[in-house]
Amino acid sequence: DTAVSQTPKYLVTQMGNDKSIKCEQNLGHDTMYWYKQDSKKFLKIMFSYNNKELIINETVPNRFSPKSPDKAHLNLHINSLELGDSAVYFCASSQEGLAGTQYFGPGTRLTVL
Amino acid sequence: GESVGLHLPTLSVQEGDNSIINCAYSNSASDYFIWYKQESGKGPQFIIDIRSNMDKRQGQRVTVLLNKTVKHLSLQIAATQPGDSAVYFCAENIRGSNYKLTFGKGTLLTVNP
After folding, report:
1. C-beta of residue B104 within 8 angstroms of C-beta of residue B89
2. pLDDT single digits (tens) B8-54
3. How far is A66 from chain B (nearest CA, A)?
């Protein structure tokens, strides 16, 4: 059973398009995260949600809008995609208040042409 | 290969040797540290953690050392195996910030058979 799953694994799209990445965890965790990993492997947190409420928003452009329909899901919608959005996006989850022991999904490689 | 253009610190060892991966942190308020392993095409995976009230912690084949005086963290892998080849990240959790991890740059470990 996959603990944290993301779809799609690969996403290739044109500049200006709108796209979504979905994330689901079956670990019963209360906290979920989105990270962006650039071409230099630098991993940076974008958002953190706890019990469907936004806790952290790390100065991410408002073209990025996370949505948490329930505790097990945290989706990421991106409007007006730009070349610089190309990266690998990781979803993660943890028990509430235990950011250290996060379980990561397999990642979604987004390529904007 | 994968390392071209990444500009990550790299460490190349022979199978069976011990590996030491280093990490420096700057925030004195960090009180919890974690090492993650990221294999090619996968999400980061928790390896071992240490709290700031400790200076050493051992796991299976791995040891983490923490030197708070110089703000330095290291991961030692004993009898390194080809399956240990990956990018290793240190991450820090700042006291009171239960929903955020800050990741370091990452070190690419290559194990030669």
Report:
1. yes
2. 899 999 999 999 999 999 888 888 999 999 999 999 999 999 999 99
3. 16
